[in-house]
Amino acid sequence: MEASSIYTGPVFEMARKQFETVADMLDIPAPERTRIFMPKRTLAVSCPIQHDDGSVVVYQGYRVQHHLTLGPAKGGTRFAPNVDVGEVAALAIWMSWKCALAGLPYGGAKGGVAVDPRALSPRELETLSRRYMQEMLPFVGPHTDVMAPDMGTNEQVMAWFMDTYSMNQGKTVLEIVTGKPVDNGGTVGRREATGRGVAYLIGRAAETIGLKINGSTAIVQGFGNVGSVAAVTLQAMGVTVVGVSDHTCAYYDPKGLDVAKLEAHVRRTGVLEGYSKEGLFDASELLVQPCDILVPAAIERVINGKNADKLQCRILAEAANGPTTPEADAILRNRPEIYVIPDILCNAGGVIVSYFEWVQDLQQLFWDETEVNDRLHKTLERSYQAVSTLIEKRSLSARDAALSIGVERVLNAKRKRGLFP
Ligand code: NAD
Fold it and tell me: Which residues form the Glutamate/phenylalanine/leucine/valine/L-tryptophan dehydrogenase C-terminal domain (predicted)?
């Protein structure tokens, strides 16, 4: 496949390697590979904002639309210091395979701004959010590209995005973003959807491998939207959460941590740090501690060639996007005792309920939480079974099975639409 000049970096290379593996399996001819893999279009923007001290700082932002073959592009917006166009492109590509695997009428997209949102005041964060959306106006739309939250953004940021877009349109356009507050046309159950979906699939994987979920143990890396909800839901299922971490610190207690208290502390202070003087643990060692269920729910490439052979879990539930490098994948292929729930399946609950939110906004007809959760479980179940069937039928790894379903659906849609003009 042809190399690209603007998409570079380790995360993009991960997406490329994963795709090449699956493209070989599906026997996709070389020119078609480039057509399917390379992003359709990308916008890079400068976002100048005035800080509270009067200085003007320019932040670099991106939006990548990987493909629009199956419908509007769909994907989150990340505010994090190291965001670059290669990482955003990889995340957009993964969104494509994820939406196709879940059977959603979307292509993949992703956006990001290179900024540490925690270093901004509330006013600075609002100004940056609004400026970023303002710069995106010619590029996005409810039937072109629909944004959502990701790392470093939340319901409030989505409300500012929606308001900025709507003020420019002269009318309220709820369906321009998902993951909004329920007060602003969001859906019940969206904030919790990704973590709940992760927990549902862990339950299914436990059944598959004969692990009794009640009384099992879990370690969760990342205690933001996804990690905290996953931890709370797992605990409600009878799982003992023995380890958690965020970017500030890690806690580990083989007897179990009080997840509700941890969550209350994070809600109050924003971070795990300061929760307790007891149970503090070396964050770099947390992932390799013994547990039944390991849930990376933070950043990319944390399971790599250095630690994959040291994992002591039975289920690796990839709540984050891209937590496992191809080197680690190669090691895990020789460790069949670890059941991997690959990211594009594991964290799909977020985009599935985002899709429900978009449908409700378009119809102006809102569902209750039972309906949202029932439909979420039904959609995840369909994907889980499709992946499980392929694992059995073709003796594939779970990642290759999930990716090949997603890639093949995009491939088929492109082939049947034909080449324009
Ligand atoms: P978030 O910003 O709410 O939380 C991120 C968490 O990760 C925080 O607790 C942060 O402290 C922690 N973290 C950051 N760097 C860390 C490090 N080096 N070690 C340990 N912890 C670290 O973000 P989120 O929305 O929960 O997203 C987490 C992951 O899930 C990302 O990979 C994201 O792409 C993925 N994801 C999110 C959604 C969603 O609906 N929010 C959907 C699908 C996938």
Answer: 187-418
